[in-house]
Design brief:
single chain, about 15% strand, alpha+beta, 6 strands, 8 helices, 2 domains
């Protein structure tokens, strides 16, 4: 059984390794950043220490049978609840999966440190940082020409603004209008139109919807999936 000093050293190492991954996420302004990754890594290390050495007295009795790995095993499934909180679904676009995966990986690093597997823990940290940092430019290059397609439903007052004016406003910036068609009969006080638009990022689509809502004569504008 390791001494108290060694146990504290393991938790300090876990904090250091967790901070390395957390800083990368903090750099991109994700909610789960430096402190979250450090807490997860240190917490997983402590759970591993408790699981491996916390029941040493009970294990010495003939009438007690315990599996010390069961407590540590719950970290793998339990971290999923924390990871789920970092995932955002916005207009059919899922964001935050990488951060959720980094939290799960940091928990595994903490378990490795708690179990005394220092070299695998350090190696995993370096590998994870390489995946998060070095592969990002390659991923961006692969998806450089990918465009998101959404439906922009606009309700307007035809006495104040025309659908052509809305289409011209929608075509500004990084957004392209692929199709424009009315979805209500002419002659009504308010008319609705559907614009099929494409953009590179969800933020471009959100900026489009905000800009259209600000136009005089536009009653509402909302994004929807195709």
């Amino acid at each position: 059984m390791p001494s108290s000093t060694e146990m504290i050293a393991r938790m300090l190492l876990a904090a250091l390794l967790g901070s390395a991954v957390g800083l990368e996420r903090e750099r991109l302004l994700w909610v789960a950043g430096l402190r979250t990754h450090m807490l997860v890594c240190v917490g997983a290390t402590l759970v591993m220490l408790v699981s491996a050495f916390g029941f040493a007295d009970a294990l010495g009795r003939s009438d007690v049978v315990l599996d010390p790995s069961r407590v540590a095993a719950q970290v793998v499934s339990g971290i999923g609840f924390l990871g789920a909180g970092t995932i955002i679904l916005r207009h059919d676009v899922i964001r935050g999966l990488t951060t959720a995966a980094s939290l799960w990986a940091v928990a595994a690093i903490g378990l490795a440190v708690g179990g005394g597997l220092y070299l695998p823990a350090v190696a995993a940290t370096v590998l994870i940082l390489g995946i998060l940092i070095a592969l990002k430019p390659i991923e961006n290059r692969i998806h450089a020409n990918r465009r998101l397609m959404r439906s922009l439903i606009v309700e307007l007052d035809p006495a104040q603004i025309s659908s052509a004016a809305v289409e011209a406003a929608a075509a500004l910036g990084q957004v392209q209008v692929e199709l424009s068609e009315p979805i209500t009969a002419p002659g009504q006080v308010h008319q609705s139109f559907q614009f099929v638009v494409t953009a590179r990022t969800p933020d471009d689509l959100e900026r489009l919807a905000t800009a259209v809502r600000a136009l005089k004569g536009v009653v509402s504008a909302s994004l929807d999936s195709i």
